Structure formats: structure tokens, C-alpha cells
Amino acid sequence: MVKAFVLFGSAVLMGCALAGNEPGISADELQAHNTTESCWIQIEKDVYDVTDYIAEHKDKHSYDLARWCGRDATSGWLDKDGKSKPHSRKANNMLPRYRIGSI
């Protein structure tokens, strides 16, 4: 039992230490990634590298994700397609895999 607690406690402490070392991304750095070849978007305080997802998104949806490259896309995330409707639960579940840091 003690060994399990020590291992679990170490994992928690390591996770906290790693989370504290997360890179901060400046607004200038976000803005530099404003093309389909390197597309970063901001949603609330988080930054996502969606470069690899742009083509897939374009094939599935009528609106262009590329217009948000290098910008704060929070309004587009919360108001999908300008129809006063947020993105789906599926989209919410996909988003973390693209997260690269915080503003």
C-alpha cells in the first residue's frame, strides 16, 4: 500500500511539475502562424496548432478554418458558422490533441 502511494504521489508531483513548465505563447508568435502551412489559433486562453487539421476540416465543413490562422478564434468556436451555435461535443473532445500552450 505504501509503495502504491509513493508511486502515485510521485506521478502527481511529476505531472504538476510538467504542467508548470508549459510554454507561454505570445500574441506575436500566434500571429506569425497565420497561413495554412502553419496555422495556430487561439480559443480563450489556449493556443492550438491546427495545421494538420485544416484540409480535413475543409472537407467536412462549409466554413473555412484557415481564416482564423494566427488569430483569436474564440468567437468562431462559440458561434459555429455564425448560427449562434457552439461547436459539438465531438469537436470539444478533439481539440486537446492540437493544444500547444497558452497565451
List keywords for this structure.
103 residues; 5 strands; Flavocytochrome B2, Chain A, domain 1; five-stranded mixed beta sheet
Helices and strands, with pairings:
Blueprint: H1 2-20, H2 27-32, E1 34-35, E2 38-43, E3 46-49, H3 54-60, E4 71-72, H4 74-78, H5 89-94, E5 99-102
Parallel strand pairs: 2-4
Antiparallel strand pairs: 1-2, 2-3, 3-5
Describe it:
- This protein is α+β, with helices and mostly antiparallel strands and 103 residues long.
- It has one domain: Cytochrome b5-like heme/steroid binding domain (Flavocytochrome B2, Chain A, domain 1).
- Helix content is 42%, strand content 17%.
- The protein contains 5 helices and 5 strands, in the order ααβββαβααβ.
- The protein has helices at 2-20, 27-32, 54-60, 74-78, 89-94; strands spanning 34-35, 38-43, 46-49, 71-72, 99-102.
- Strands 1, 2, 3, 4 and 5 form a 5-stranded mixed β-sheet that branches.
Task: Compose a concise summary of this entry.
This protein is an alpha+beta fold. It has helices at residues 2-20, 27-32, 54-60, 74-78, 89-94; strands at 34-35, 38-43, 46-49, 71-72, 99-102. The chain has a single domain (24-102), classed as Flavocytochrome B2, Chain A, domain 1, CATH 3.10.120.10.
Mean pLDDT: 80
How far apart the termini lie comes to 41 Å
Number of helices: 5
Overall 3D shape: globular
Share of residues in helices: 40-55%
**Total number of domains:** 1
How big is the Rg?
Answer: 17 Å
The CATH superfamily is identified as: Cytochrome b5-like heme/steroid binding domain
- Unreliable runs, pLDDT <50, ≥5 residues? 1-18
Number of strands: 5
Which fold does the CATH topology refer to? Answer: Flavocytochrome B2, Chain A, domain 1
| Helix vs. strand class | alpha+beta
Task: Sketch the major β-sheet.
Answer: 5 strands, mixed
- The portion of residues forming beta strands comes to 15-25%
Order of helices and strands: HHEEEHEHHE
What CATH first level would be assigned?
A: Alpha Beta
Which CATH architecture is right?
A: Roll
